Recover the amino acids of this structure.
């Protein structure tokens, strides 16, 4: 090359590099590195204490994502966490889907746009109460495959998918070093629970998975959760209700809590779990107190298992999880607000928490202890280039006594700690927060009939015929029982359910013919016996039909079937419909799990002995005729000969229903109340809203009051005993048009569609109760005068903060008393001491506004209503949509 050529080449190269560099330059952040030490993740050179909010993107719609992310940020999250969902992204081998609810890139970008970081747990086994734990069902069919072990076919498929995800994110420049939000990745999921089942191969698989992940050069650290032998640089992390004792397997790794279970999931026929926020806050404060550095809420928003994504078997369609943001995207208060305060308190401690390499431990009593984080830090002084030293000190005081409060002395000052609580002292002196003292508002959400147009009315005051929003006219069409198309096949013997359905439908029809002789009939009559269908083991639901008549329904997870049946003389059709209700998502050897029937399957009680049904010739048919015809879609539904349903029609099994309805006005979340139906699936404008099943929770097992004290488990503080587990089914607003929405329902058991109604979920009532002795609001710590030292935080007064959901304002104050009020939300009453102007002061501050702050002090209420007594302010307020009364939001 000539010299001038060389120069031109260099110029071109630098131009190219410049373009490349500009293209890879920061899109959300200035590119930054993520590393770690024993104390924390190190983000752009600085240790960080991080709060992470778990949101599974396909459990919401893309239209919901921005609001969920914004609510997480406002709640104090630094990071958004999600799994990836392999079976959603690769429903057919080699055919990828990153659209709609599965638009991972869009979701990560929205998180980046909001200035939050991202933790992506790729798995690709994820558990998550998600169908088959996230594995595509086609994975079972890869020759020679064994899941989650040292098995070449499995490793090949896993590596292909994980590589696909990492490459996609790199191409989209979503890693931190590219200026993207992703700071941390996860490979596998709780494999430590399964490893022993796989012997040496399990150990080898862990090493392989670690090396494979690291080999992808994603440029951010990786974690493995519940994996005490996580190799090399991979950080082993904790998943549990409490993780404050957790120590990673190397002194060089930070303590990370990937799943803080702030609630739990639910099965059909189960009670609803509830984890009290006082205990949740206690667990989190203890984690940071004892050296933790990153905590992720599993879940911050749980959402909905739309379609057939629910795992199981038997997990319900709602994945509300009792999370701080409810299934509908509304704040669950006081959970969200109390945790917001906790996060602010931890944020105040962050400089000391990251500066100190480890805490100083102090025993304060038999069950009381303090951890103090103290360090000298060097900062650049104002107006000078010289560094100056400043000391930082934060402390956590814990009372782990489950029953009694304790008064402790810490650095010469006395502190009273409620039972099972932690006080957080960002300056080692003043309490910013105590986990058991909830100052945040409570919000009561009403589920109201949607009326057209404009207004909604609380359920209690409705009479039925006032209700609209309920489809008035219904059409129906029967699902044929048994074999309905030419797409069937006949096979000598019993086939495994999933091998046939490939999980393309819940339903598999099996049909055979049984011959009954005159002698059999006489035998049954003489001996007063009837033949019985006996199956060693079955899951999840079996329906038995004889000559088209439903004669038995059985459900359970690998349960024995003993079902008496009746035949007439001659040939009869015996039809078995086996059904899945969400595939297994947890356990070893998932590929072998299967569905349908196991073991012997026979008809007993015949004169010449048992009939071994597994030897007969069976005709198989996958799925329902209506599913195959897609009669739930706008385009195809007309094809199905619908007929008008009479109001007094008797409930019929295996029936399709359809109706049209108008969307309720406003922005409030919408659901269908399917409480009048039995079991089936529902679609709105072709969107599958999920399975429904009207099973009732046991009457017992719920306690009237929930005591937050003591270690939580998912059976504690249960609610909803004796009621249907789920009656409301979320219909995302974005799936609705203003009018003429198509609702299609497939009903198996028989129900009354005329009773189906459209409901609105409205956060109507706000309550709060804060005493004079409560600590000042967390935001006061950020007040410039407090930061500058002109004012002490101890001069600040406590406050009540009320806030309606966006688009709503406080329309009335139903109760307000500054004094000694009694009772709790929706049940407050005045006590002996009551400031006469309570109502007017609170009304003045709050009415007509979306949000208001009221100081809890004598001066706020024109003087002391009763000297020498600690006063409390209790408020109950109502919120209404600002559009309904034509007042704009403040
Ligand atoms: C964990 C698992 C999660 C989820 C959770 C229960 O063990 O890692 O994916 O299944 O349990 O909600």
């Amino acid at each position: 090359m000539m010299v001038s050529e060389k120069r031109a080449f260099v110029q071109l190269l630098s131009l190219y590099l410049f373009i490349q560099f500009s293209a890879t330059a920061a899109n959300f952040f200035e590119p930054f590195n993520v590393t770690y030490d024993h104390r924390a993740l190190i983000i752009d050179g600085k240790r960080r204490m991080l709060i992470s909010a778990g949101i599974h993107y396909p459990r919401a719609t893309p239209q919901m994502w921005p609001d969920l992310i914004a609510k997480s940020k406002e709640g104090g999250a630094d990071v958004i966490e999600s799994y990836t969902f392999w079976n959603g992204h690769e429903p057919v081998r080699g055919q990828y889907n990153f659209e709609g609810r599965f638009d991972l890139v869009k979701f990560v970008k929205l998180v980046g746009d909001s200035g939050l970081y991202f933790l992506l747990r790729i798995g690709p086994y994820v558990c998550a109460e998600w169908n088959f734990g996230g594995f595509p069902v086609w994975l079972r069919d890869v020759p020679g495959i064994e899941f989650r072990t040292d098995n070449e076919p499995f490793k090949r498929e896993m590596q292909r998918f994980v590589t696909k995800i990492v490459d996609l994110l790199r191409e989209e420049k979503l890693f931190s070093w590219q200026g993207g939000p992703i700071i941390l990745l996860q490979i596998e999921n709780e494999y430590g629970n399964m490893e022993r089942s796989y012997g040496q191969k399990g150990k080898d698989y862990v090493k392989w998975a670690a090396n494979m992940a690291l080999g992808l050069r994603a440029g951010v650290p990786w974690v493995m959760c519940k994996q005490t032998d996580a190799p090399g640089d991979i950080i082993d992390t904790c998943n549990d209700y409490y993780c404050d004792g957790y120590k990673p397997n190397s002194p060089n790794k930070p303590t990370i809590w990937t799943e803080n279970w702030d609630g739990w999931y639910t099965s059909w026929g189960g009670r609803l779990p509830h984890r009290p926020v006082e205990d949740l806050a206690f667990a989190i404060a203890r984690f940071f107190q004892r050296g933790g550095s990153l905590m992720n809420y599993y879940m911050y928003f749980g959402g909905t298992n739309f379609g057939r994504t629910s795992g199981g078997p038997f997990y319900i369609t709602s994945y509300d999880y009792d999370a701080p943001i409810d299934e509908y995207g509304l704040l669950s208060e006081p959970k969200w607000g109390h945790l917001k305060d906790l996060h602010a308190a931890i944020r105040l401690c962050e400089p000391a928490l990251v500066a100190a390499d480890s805490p100083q431990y102090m025993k304060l009593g038999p069950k009381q202890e303090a951890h103090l984080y103290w360090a000298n830090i060097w900062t650049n002084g104002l107006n000078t280039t010289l560094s100056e030293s400043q000391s930082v000190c934060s402390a956590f005081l814990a009372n782990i006594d489950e029953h009694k409060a304790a008064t402790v002395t810490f650095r010469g000052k006395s502190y009273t700690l409620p039972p099972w609580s932690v006080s957080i002292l960002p300056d080692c002196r003043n309490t910013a927060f105590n986990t058991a003292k909830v100052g945040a508002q409570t919000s009561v959400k009403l589920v109201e009939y949607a009326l057209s147009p404009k207004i909604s009315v609380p359920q209690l005051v409705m009479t039925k015929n006032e209700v609209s929003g309920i489809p008035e006219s219904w059409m129906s069409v029967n699902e044929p029982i048994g074999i309905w198309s030419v797409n069937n096949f006949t096979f000598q013997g019993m086939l495994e359910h999933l091998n046939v359905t490939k999980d393309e439908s819940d339903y598999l029809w099996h049909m055979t013919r049984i011959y009954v002789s005159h002698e059999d009939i006489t035998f049954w009559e003489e001996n007063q016996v009837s033949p019985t269908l006996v199956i060693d083991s079955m899951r999840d639901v079996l329906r038995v039909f004889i000559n088209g008549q439903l004669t038995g329904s059985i459900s359970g997870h690998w349960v024995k079937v003993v079902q008496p049946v009746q035949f007439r003389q001659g040939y009869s059709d015996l039809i078995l419909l086996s059904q899945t209700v969400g595939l297994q998502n947890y356990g070893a050897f998932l590929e072998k799990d299967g569905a349908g029937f196991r073991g012997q399957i026979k008809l007993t009680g015949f004169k010449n002995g048992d009939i071994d049904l597994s030897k007969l010739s069976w005709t198989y048919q996958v799925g329902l005729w209506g599913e195959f015809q897609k009669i739930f879609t706008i385009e195809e539904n007309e094809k199905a000969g619908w007929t008008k349903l009479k109001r007094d029609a008797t409930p019929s099994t295996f029936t399709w229903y359809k109706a049209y309805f108008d969307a309720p006005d406003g922005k409030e979340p919408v659901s269908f109340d399917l409480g009048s139906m039995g079991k089936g699936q529902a679609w709105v404008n072709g969107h599958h809203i999920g399975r429904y099943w009207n099973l009732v929770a046991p009457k017992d097992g719920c306690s009237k009051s929930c005591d937050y004290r003591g270690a939580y488990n998912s059976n504690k503080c249960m609610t909803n005993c004796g009621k249907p587990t789920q009656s409301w089914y979320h219909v995302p607003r974005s799936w609705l048009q203003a009018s003429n929405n198509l609702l299609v329902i497939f009903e198996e058991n028989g129900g009354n569609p005329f009773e189906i109604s459209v409901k609105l979920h409205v956060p109507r009532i706000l309550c709060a109760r804060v005493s004079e002795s409560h600590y000042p609001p967390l935001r006061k710590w950020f007040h410039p005068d407090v930061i500058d030292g002109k004012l002490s935080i101890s001069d600040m007064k406590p406050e009540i903060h009320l806030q309606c959901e966006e688009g709503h304002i406080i329309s009335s104050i139903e109760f307000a008393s500054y004094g000694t009020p009694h009772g709790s939300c929706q049940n407050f009453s005045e006590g002996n001491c009551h400031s006469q102007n309570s109502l007017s002061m609170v009304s003045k501050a709050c009415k007509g506004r979306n949000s208001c702050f009221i100081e809890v002090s004598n001066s706020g209420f024109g003087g002391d209503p009763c000297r020498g007594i600690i006063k409390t302010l209790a408020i109950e307020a109502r919120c209404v949509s600002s559009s309904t009364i034509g007042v704009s939001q403040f």
Q: What stands out?
A: The pocket of beta-D-galactopyranose is lined by residues 126-129, 189-190, 239, 259, 265 (CB under 6 Å). The chain has 13 helices and 41 strands.
